[in-house]
Design goal:
The complex is a heterodimer of chains A (137) and B (185). By secondary structure, chain A is an all-alpha fold. Chain A has helices at residues 4-19, 25-32, 38-59, 80-96, 102-108, 114-131. Chain B is built from ten helices and no strands. In chain B, helix 9 (147-156) runs antiparallel to helix 10 (160-184). With 185 residues, chain B is mainly α. Classes of the chains: A mainly alpha (137), B mainly alpha (185).
Chain lengths: 137, 185
Amino acid sequence: MKFLKFLFVGIFFGIVLVKSEAVSWYRIYEMFKFQSFHMYGIIGSAVVIGVVGIFLIKKFELKSIEGKPIAVPPKEKGFVSYILGGTIFGLGWALAGACPGPMYILLGAGVFTISIVILAAMLGTFVYGLLKNRLPH
Amino acid sequence: MDILLKPWPWYVSGPLIATVLLVLTYFGKNFGMSSNLKTFCTIAGAGKYSDFFRFDWKAQRWNLTIVIGAILGGFISTAFLNDGSPVQLSPKTISDLAALNFSEAGETLLPKEIYSWESVLTLKGISILVVGGFLVGFGTRYAGGCTSGHAISGLSNLQLPSLIAVIGFFIGGLVMTHFILPLLF
């Protein structure tokens, strides 16, 4: 079952995000108030280890589990979509306190009202798809 | 076992999140949770309305499997890896929230003032969740990624666009937290 490994990654991800409290609305509020190092420590240490890991994967041209070369694609160049989209995302993140990973994790944690956030996020994605060609990128 | 049940410190959690990124990279995939929202739109038939949603969603089944796992992980950690500890917030955060009429800050993962059915079933309550979710869904696609795709994967790959997106996350988050939330509560 080739999907089983992804199921385990998801379970692991969900557990880590709950136990780190990164799924908590309060932690997001506290982060944007600069009142604790906690979230900066989580994201910062993840990025530092990620940088080293991705660097080593590229340097040694490691093969993936399927034996293929690992491609770490660069993001498309740009500015306007990243800064505007990012700002819109940030407004929603600090209001709902949940980003696109935690919203599913919170559903599993028994917060059923989060399903409204998930449906609204799908709607937001849909509206972006409709407007995409008219927005500055 | 005790140590598993208590909240985990950042220096344990951060490296474990990096592990998720690196394991997925080893599996030949790109870590990014917000793509699933697009996939859900496609499954629901959004391709009828925009080219943006016309793609083979079956190629994204691995990512949908992660969503199912994340839901299970949320359940497992809350039901079995939980000693009932409150969220370890700074005292200043708790007092600031008390000033905004949030009582019992940190006693549960999410504030009842936003996420309880009692709050949600008011016009203000439902608006907060709908607007918040909408902005997250719209913004993440406009920016081409969310916290996992940009802040974790993109920055780990030293991508300037991801840094710009993360700066955007902070502009929006700071405006909401410092200027808009105090008007709402």
